[in-house]
Amino acid sequence: MSSNIKKSRRFLNTKFGFFVLIVALFWLKTYFAYNVDFTLGAKGGIQNFLLAINPIPAALLIFGIALYFKGKLAYWLMLIIDLIESIWLFANIVYYREFSDFLSFGVIKGSGDVQNNLGKSLAEIIHPLDFIVFLDIIVLIILLLFKFIKVDHSPFKKKNAFAMTILSFVLIFAEFGIANANRSGLLTRTFDNNYIVKYLGLNEYAAFNGYQTYKESKTRSEAKPSDIKPVLDYLKKNRSSPNMEYFGKAKGKNVFVIHLESFQQFLINYKVDGKEVTPNLNKFYGNKNTLSFDNFYHQVSQGKTSDAEMMLENSLFGLPQGSAMVSYGTQNTYQAAPAILSQRGYSTAAFHGDVPSFWNRDNTYKSWGYQYFFDSDYYTEKPSYSVGYGLKDKIFFKDSAKYIQKLPQPFYAKLITLTNHYPYELDKQNISFPATKTGDDTVDPYVQTAHYLDQAFGEFVNYLNKTGLMKNSMIVLYGDHYGISNNHRPAIAQLLHKKNITSYDLAQFQKVPFMIHMNGLKGGIDHTYGGEIDVLPTLLHLLGIKDDNTIQFGNDLLSPNRSQVVAFRNGDLVSPKYTIIGGTVYNTENGSVINPNPSQQKEIKSMQNHVTTELSLSDKVILGDLLRFYNPKGFTKVNKKDFNYKYSSAMKQLDKIDKDKKSSLLSKLRKNNTDNLYTTNAPELKK
Ligand code: GP9
Ligand code: MN
User: Fold this and answer.
1) In this predicted model, what pLDDT tens digit does every residue of 232-276 receive, in sequence order?
2) Exposed (0-12), middle (13-18) or buried (19+): which is 382, by Cβ within 10 Å?
3) CB of 607 closer than 8 Å to CB of 238
4) Candidates 389, 424, 446: which one to mutate for ligand 1, based on the most atoms within 8 Å of Cβ?
5) Which of 2, 249, 332, 393 shows the smallest number of beta carbons within 10 Å?
6) Is the distance from the beta carbon of residue 529 to the nearest atom of ligand 1 less than 6 Å?
7) What's the CA-to-centroid distance between 567 and ligand 2, angstroms?
């Protein structure tokens, strides 16, 4: 026994021994913080394995630098590296407690603008126990000072130090390989900082975030004020005038924007075994006061939901790669719907049952001017309440009413649903619809979660009717993107009752619902061709806001003289006449391939030019952060510091405003709550 102790002391007295000890301690405390201070949501063997080992490869690399140095210097270096690493860990622990997200260089850099009011509350959010992350450093210093561990003066072979560097790189790549196999697109699509830490670790996250911030500031610093000129010239030519029959029809109304997750147009009036998948949405679609668009396409790329949100609220396209909300949401200047409307007396709120960091919503929403963001922290969480990414839709809508009833009216409220998300999981007690029988396991449960979403929507509509909100609100519904990807051709063929699926069919399969409902609105099925980019101008015109100054790439779907060329993010397009996919031209009416004659070629060329121009100009606006150079009349630049999405601040603010304005639903109804007006059959909520 004692010889073992001797042996290990001898080992610790070597430089390599000290290196192993300091890395092991660093690993332990990081893993401890992963479990205690962060909610990383590791599920399954692979994710838990990666979470446990992911601090090691980067630690070997960084602490390993010290191995190249001699004597005491090497020890000091290891301690200094440990200190820097621990400060990074400490800062993240504290920041995470407040924001459920990791620190980004964008946040650190923008100390004035986007620091999220951190300074003010720092003292309140630090716990004494947080300092434990520095304990190992203190202990190691004491052990060295009192010579319990002796400094090894003999040189560590450069060859071995180099081998350690190589080994750590090999491990980092291996780690990335396993991570990417488990979550493809981890770094290209970016998603959520929590994911990068969960899979790769805090150091890798810092490196990746640093690289992204570098890239982002480079494009920003290269841009100049005159770059906005071609954008303005383009918009001047392409803006369409409002339809006076509809202009201002919704003036002063509340606006509900309901995001139907992964919901495709083909589901509308679709039947399985003779039963409607979405009876409530179908009724809404056919209502005489609903404007329903049946040639409306999603235009997202890798950023999926976040691309849809970017288009809907800014009329700017997502980027060809990654998510603009993640890379350009924190720092950029925007002129988004919430900002435009709040400057006209609206209160603005987003509701979503997922963590606030996903798609960087917590930061981006501030840039867009959202006053409130009711994220998963605002909802009661129980394991049975969630599936997949978060709260089940019935519970989400029901619990959102708690906050809707307090919002000062008129309000702009966006509710993002979640349950109808790949892989379309739902627990047995909530399944009340037959799956399709294509034999494709990914596709078949899609109608079941869509049916569940429809029921949740139906319950919410009941609530709107009972509370009277329906009467003074405009309800906007949209599907964000496809639910069934193009990889499922045979199943798609069966669903659409077709023998073969062509690229033309797949393009038409990208239609998603877009509906606008309001009491007294002249409804009907509108066949105009459009997409997500067109939503903002449409809504603004309905609200009576003629806003020719802000930069919007879409045009009002109700406008009589609009261009009906719909750009897909990859440059393909659909128009009433032609559908152009990968260079092949189809007749949009019947899907037949066209060999264009010279005059058709000219027409096609001009459509393609239109699409590439609008996509590239929109990209320039985001990549160069061009809106910072542009101050349209009637618009005040958003100050991100105005917003704080902490539960307690939001509640305080809502109460305060309502005391003055008495415009919330509760005040109008003279009630303390509207619980008894919300009926849900969610089994989880049964008493
Ligand atoms: C997560 C949700 C899903 O919060 O919005 O995003 P998606 O995977 O559809 O892009
Ligand atoms: Mn989505």
Assistant:
1) 999 999 888 999 999 999 999 999 999 999 999 999 999 999 999
2) exposed
3) no
4) 389
5) 2
6) no
7) 19
Tens of pLDDT, residues 60-114: 999 999 999 999 999 999 999 999 999 999 999 998 887 778 998 877 875 444 4
Confidence of residue 435 (pLDDT cuts 50, 70, 90): very high
Our answer on whether the CB atom of 354 is closer than 6 Å to any ligand 1 atom is yes
Intra-chain end-to-end CA distance of the chain, in Å = 61
Give me ligand 1 centre to Cα 24, in Å.
Answer: 36
User: Would you list the domain boundaries of the chain?
Assistant: 2-219, 227-677
3-state secondary structure of 412: strand
Specify the 3-state DSSP secondary structure of 603.
helix
**Are 297 and 512 a contacting pair, CB within 8 Å?**
yes
Pair type for strands 473-479 and 254-260: parallel
Of all protein residues, whose CA lies closest to atom 9 belonging to ligand 1?
305
The minimum-distance atom of ligand 1 relative to the CA of 262 is 9
- Burial-class residue 129 by CB neighbours within 10 Å (0-12, 13-18, 19+): exposed
pTM: 0.88
Token digits for 181? 């196999």
> Is there an atom of ligand 1 within 6 Å of 304 CB?
yes
Which CATH number fits the domain 227-677, given the four candidates 2.30.30.100, 3.40.1080.10, 3.30.230.70, 3.40.720.10?
3.40.720.10
CB 199 within 8 A of CB 54: yes
